[in-house]
Structures are given as structure tokens and as C-alpha cells.
Amino acid sequence: MKAMILAAGLGKRMRPLTDHCPKPLLPVAGKPLIVHHLERLRLAGIHEVVINVSYRAEQIVAALGDGGAYGLRIRWSRETTPLETGGGIQQALPLLGEAPFLLVNGDVWCAALPDQQALQGDDLAHLMLVENPPQHASGDFGLAGGRVNQTNTERLTYSGISVIHPGLLAGQPQGSFALAPLLRTAIDNNQVSGEHYKGHWVDVGTPERLAALERQLQSERG
Fold this sequence. Notes:
Number of helices: 5
Radius of gyration: 17 Å
Oligomer: single chain
Mean pLDDT: 93
Structural class: alpha/beta
Low-confidence stretches: none
Order of helices and strands: EEEHEHEHEEEEEEHEEH
Strand content: 25-35%
Helix content: 10-25%
Shape: globular
Distance between the termini: 35 Å
């Protein structure tokens, strides 16, 4: 299985830290945030990773190269203008192929990945869901019997980590578009499974949350 890391965002919420450094390269516990993802993917047996880049793309490419230093092969999907999540994935599909792939938002930190064999039958996605963080208390989706829904009153938050079938994006025009509406349609068609992950996960979206993650990881390292 291949993986895709979404790393093309502007990182506006992380300013001023991202004024001169793209968010994926911000250091956490002694290494860039995106390197934590690369190392975890490699441990999971992933050998080929596609990364989309736009803002300060050359800095990211120069820092990570071809991925050899991490035991991976990195292929780059360059966006002249940000294409949002859906458009970015669609542009990268020729590099990802026709099989399901792991999708990881570059601006989260998580201690685990979903099962690479999570997709069953005609499912188009498998979402890792987490407890709602303070900044997103209302959550995103319900989960019942391993199926994601939009009807439960009790909701969980999408972690930004999933297994995606390329068919989820079938028929979409080229250009910028969001992934969320496609996921919601697939959910309503009962084509999305999910799991409730209760381990360590952080949406590293602000300097304050980055600093809190740094403190926690440093304390765990003793």
C-alpha cells in the first residue's frame, strides 16, 4: 500500500512560525513534524509516499529529498496553487495508482495508523475518529457498529487519517475542491467504515498546541 501526506497548506493559523518555515517542517521533539509521519509509515511497512506541496514547496523537497534517509521513496505532487484536500488528492492519483491508500493530514500528530486492510466490500473510505478536542467540541461524524454515520447525536472528530479508495473521487473535475462533501455522500450511501482511536492524537494547528505537544513528548522521553 502507498500513502499520501497532505502538506500543501499555507499554515495561516501557525503564524508567525510559518512565515519562513512551512508547517510540515516545524520541529516537534527534535525532528520536523512530517518526519514523525514518515517514520511511522515506514514502521507500518509503507515504502512509497506521495506528498503534495505548494507553500514553500522547495524547502520541503530540499529537506526530505527522495525519502531514502527514511527508508522510503517519496514522490512529489506540486501544486502551483493550493487545490484543497480533494483537488490535491485527485492531482496525485496518477502517482498513487488504483489501489486504496493511506491518507494522512500533515498537520496532525498521531501515535497510530489504521489497518491497511480496513476497506471491505464496496467501501470507499475508512476513517480514524477521535474524541472531540476542545477546539472542535461538536465533532464530525457518528460511529455505530463500525460504520460512520451523520445521524448519531454523539459525534467524534475525524482525525485526518484514513484509508481512501480512489473511486471516492471518481467523476470529479480537475481543480480545487474539498474532500468532505465526497465523504459525506459516501457516508450517506453506507460506504464508509470507521474506528474510534483512543490513543494520543493532536491537531497541531496553532503555536500553542504545537508547544503543548512538544512538552508532552519531551516529558514522555524523560
